[in-house]
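hey so i finally got around to running the thing on that chain from the lab meeting. sorry it took forever, my laptop kept dying and i had to restart like 3 times. anyway pasting the input first so we r on the same page abt which one it is
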Amino acid sequence: MYKYTYIFLVILNFFYGLIPLQISSIIGTDFLIGEFSDYNLKRDIFIYTFLVSFSLLPLLKKNIIKPRFNGLGKLAQNIGFRIYYLYLIFLVILGLFLRKLGFDRLELLSILSSTFLQGMGLIMSLFYLSIIKKTKTQILIISFLFVMIDIFFMGKQYFIALITLLFFLADYHKIKVTITQIILIFLGGVLFIFLINFSRGDFSQIDLYSTLMEFRAVLSSIQFSKQNISFLELNQFRTIIEEECFSIYGYNLAFHPLLYFRSLNGGFFLNIFLYILFLFILFKFIIRYLGAFGVLIITLNFIHFLRHGIDIFLIKILVQSFMIFVFILKYNDNLVFDENSH
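ok and heres what got predicted. didnt touch it at all, straight out
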């Protein structure tokens, strides 16, 4: 049972929807980006939040297996770990160099994205799966690299991935986490965001608005919803929204899942119900056959669901899950039907 991982993902989902919405209802709609009124937004957010929490329930299944890699998998895992570890070191050095040259945040994030080449997602998955067996010292070194990358590039994606990984490891190794520790972790997250804001050098802009900018921006993307978009047209749809965002605000917003559910053919209620039902079945299937490795794949890619695209999320977990299945096939072909054997 991966209860800490489940709780973290549910809370993260709250931060990307319900929490900024509630803050905007208290301090005013100007908390969101752009002046738009949406009388059904609160209703849709509540429905969405509940259904997403439901889709993640397979993480709470008891007796989830802990697979092992076959020979090919071990080789791929070792190669993937070394490649991505060197990549992290490269990013730290590159980030320090670019900050010394005075690059601004948008330029830094653009360069960071450009370094993530095609196929890196699979290598990254192997890297994270390797961390499961690493020592505390090795995990601390990796954690340091993650934090420094986000500080130098003024981002947050590696820090979120780090927190996600730590909760997963607590569940995997059955480490008890207290409520106090969970609160301290989230307070540490807020402190980290302040640290990123400080690193920008404009202290006058450090407030609630800037601290929660990531979550405000994602929620605000819902204003660009269209109608009668096909699921197969989502890449083109994203391009159109990016152009609209940039023409209005001078920068792009990340995409909230509701933007898609409201835009696809069939209407909001049918779209979200069918998609969440599919996710629930898919998660059960992945965890049934990939065990803890499947939980990690779902968990680490969840951020893509929250802010990139509901189709991108599906593609990533399907491709990565198939790769992991191939890499554990030899050891578990006679075990996956007997979950109590581990």
